[in-house]
Design a protein that fits this description.
Keywords: DNA-binding, Transcription, Transcription regulation. The chain is of the alpha/beta class. It has three domains: 80 residues, Arc Repressor Mutant, subunit A (Orthogonal Bundle); 103 residues, D-Maltodextrin-Binding Protein, domain 2, CATH 3.40.190.10; 90 residues, D-Maltodextrin-Binding Protein, domain 2. The protein is built from ten helices and twelve strands. It is elongated and about 75 Å long.
């Protein structure tokens, strides 16, 4: 019976998630040479190539893709077993995620954090980027994934998000009339960017719906009451991008960043796990969003 090296399996999973030997080595606190040796050891143990590597690409082989889920389960079981033997008290980790940022990847992030450290109690707060930034600065949360606000340059960049104007297909806006907007809060940073763009374009607007939270805003837009600005990844079901239809201004992309006040070794590993899971889940939707925005912009200029 083949006995797998848990450390080698963790190396394989890290490479698969980050799709880079360089980033995997950084996340594991070792060198590219060391992780290459561990991967080769694992491939010898299973008798198959798991990672295909070229000068421009790192990807899973067919058997590697099949092995990834069981490998994650093995690591989770190993961590639970180790945690069960440890007398250490459970740790708490408070994470803020901006409502204009968090989407379908949130369950993935939480599952990955739990699998990494089953003894970790995770507290999640969903709020506007500005409110989360204030909470982080006051020490009320350990880390936050937010839109980069103003000229603040701290934090680790995770991805670039693209925004558009969304409404239902039958939403009506007549030239010269104030654009009906829905917003979650007067202090919402995305709303402020949108209204500044409208002002620069000379387009009047009125706040038709002010809801409590982004879900209420999404419901109002999906009901046809107003238009609003959403990340192209998070637009409400049944809505379409309407900037070209109504002559609305293009919106600048936004950087998504991770802020953290944690510095101990164990917490740094948690954060690296969080960063890797976010980037893995966000990469393809973000690329598609960029293509959609580019097509809309080119069409508007033609």
């Amino acid at each position: 019976m083949t006995t797998l090296d848990v450390d080698a399996v963790k190396t394989f999973v890290t490479i698969a998630e980050l799709k880079s030997f360089t980033r995997a080595a950084e996340a594991l606190g070792t060198t590219q040479g060391a992780i290459s040796v561990k991967l080769k050891r694992l491939e010898r143990q299973v008798g198959h190539r798991l990672i295909e590597r070229t000068p421009r690409l790192v990807r899973l082989s067919a058997l590697g893709a099949e092995f990834l889920a069981p490998a994650r389960e093995l690591l989770a079981a190993h961590d639970r077993a180790v945690a069960g033997l440890s007398p250490a008290r459970r740790r708490r980790f408070s994470l803020g995620i901006a409502t204009h940022v968090g989407g379908a990847e949130v369950p993935t992030l939480l599952a990955r954090l739990h699998a990494h450290d089953p003894a970790l109690t995770i507290e999640v707060r969903l709020d506007d980027s500005r409110d989360l930034l204030d909470a982080f600065d006051r020490g009320q949360i350990d880390a936050a994934i937010i839109r980069r606000e103003d000229d603040r340059r701290d934090g680790e960049m995770l991805a670039t998000d693209h925004y558009g104007w969304f409404a239902t297909p039958d939403f009506v806006h007549r030239t010269g009339e104030p654009l009906r907007l829905a917003a979650s809060s007067p202090s919402c940073g995305v709303l402020n960017i949108a209204t500044r763009a409208l002002a620069a374009a000379g387009i009047p607007w009125t706040e038709t719906f002010l809801g409590c939270g982004s879900f209420a805003v999404a419901d109002a837009v999906a009901a046809g009451l107003a238009t609003s600005v959403f990340s192209c990844r998070l637009a409400p079901a049944g809505t379409i991008e309407v900037s070209r239809r109504f002559g609305l201004p293009a919106l600048p992309p936004s950087e998504i960043v991770l802020l953290s006040a944690l510095s101990d070794a164990r917490s740094r590993v948690v954060l690296k796990t969080l960063v890797g899971a976010f980037r893995e889940h966000h990469r393809l939707p973000a690329d598609r969003a960029a293509e959609e925005i580019r097509a809309i912009t080119e069409a508007a200029g033609s």
